[in-house]
Amino acid sequence: MQSDQANELIVRSVVDRGHNLGLAVIAEGVETADVLDALGGYRYDMAQSSHVCRLVSAEAFMQWYEERERQ
Question: What's the predicted TM-score (pTM) here?
Answer without folding.
Answer: 0.67
